[in-house]
Backbone:
């Protein structure tokens, strides 16, 4: 059987590929479990300093697989709450908590939870032909897997509400113009650009990147004094790292820094 998630180790980083192209990489429990395992393995490996997430084929991810698992059965309606909390949301939590940067290369349509997964990543590049569909209401569901958290923060409430209610697709160029993603790139250049960016991040100050993720996670709820206190603590930690010492030395010696990702 084909692995629903293909893991491609690339030295200091790894590529995770959603691998069910005939269904536009729609996710089911087995695929979500494999994705969680792959993210856990990346987080547990100190030599893995960045992750790239993308999809196989013409789609990035069409969200939850619409099939028997989400159909009413003899025992009544499906338990979507359990599915969401135990699977989809666990993926989103892992993407946000992973202590290394996660780049997402949206190679085609990202719909429903597929769009949410992309928006949960740290840096999102999308092929110009790709689109984002907040598709949930098309089938009578509500934005999920973080979509109702990420969207208003990224593009403002007016656009977020309209996308959730109308489910109109957002082309990649529009997503870039709205600040929903980092950059739309030509289809042929997507993977090369995403891989180069991931490799660059994998050679960066890994500990500082982990703390940058912590800062942005906390800024969603902190007031300014709390955020300044957090910045001071994290800056203190970063300032004690070997990478900071190397960064300053490299600056003074007018050469590129050779970061190792080491703390001490
Ligand atoms: O736990 C929870 O959180 C539950 C809730 C989950 C959140 C969700 O994700 S709910 C949203 C679920 N996803 C959708 O509603 C999207 C369904 N798909 C579509 O609307 C369209 O496929 C797309 C807009 C994404 C792309 O359209 P198009 O025309 O490019 O492709 P297509 O022809 O519709 O799809 C190609 C194939 O993929 C097709 O299979 P076939 O006919 O060739 O055998 C299609 O059935 C299949 N496919 C696409 N999406 C899904 C799917 N199969 C199962 N589940 C899908 N989600």
Residues:
């Amino acid at each position: 059987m084909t692995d629903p998630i293909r893991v491609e180790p690339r030295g200091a980083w790894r590529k995770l590929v959603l691998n069910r192209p005939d269904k536009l990489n729609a996710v089911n429990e087995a695929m979500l479990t494999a994705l969680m395992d792959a993210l856990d393995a990346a987080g547990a490996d100190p030599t893995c300093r960045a992750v790239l997430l993308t999809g196989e084929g013409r789609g990035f991810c069409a969200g939850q697989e619409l099939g028997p698992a989400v159909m009413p059965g003899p025992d009544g309606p499906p338990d979507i709450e359990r599915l969401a909390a135990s699977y989809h949301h666990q993926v989103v939590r892992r993407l946000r908590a992973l202590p290394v940067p996660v780049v997402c290369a949206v190679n085609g349509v990202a719909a429903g939870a597929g769009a949410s997964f992309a928006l949960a990543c740290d840096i999102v590049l999308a092929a110009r032909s790709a689109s984002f569909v907040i598709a949930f209401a098309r089938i009578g569901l509500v934005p999920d897997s973080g979509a109702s958290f990420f969207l208003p923060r990224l593009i403002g409430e007016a656009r977020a509400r309209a996308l959730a209610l109308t489910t109109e697709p957002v082309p990649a160029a529009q997503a870039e113009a709205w600040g929903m993603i980092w950059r739309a790139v030509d289809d042929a250049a997507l993977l090369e650009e995403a891989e180069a960016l991931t490799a660059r991040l994998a050679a960066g100050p890994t500990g500082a990147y982990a703390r940058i993720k912590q800062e942005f996670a906390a800024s969603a709820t902190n007031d300014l004094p709390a955020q300044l206190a957090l910045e001071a603590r994290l800056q203190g930690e970063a300032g004690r790292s070997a990478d900071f010492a190397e960064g300053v030395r490299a600056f003074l010696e007018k050469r590129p820094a050779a970061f190792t990702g080491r703390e001490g």
User: Anything to note?
Assistant: The radius of gyration is 19 Å. The beta strands are 5-10, 13-18, 51-55, 59-61, 102-106, 109-111, 123-127, 131-133, 170-171, 183-185. The mean pLDDT is 97. The CA atoms of residues 106 and 126 lie 4 Å apart.
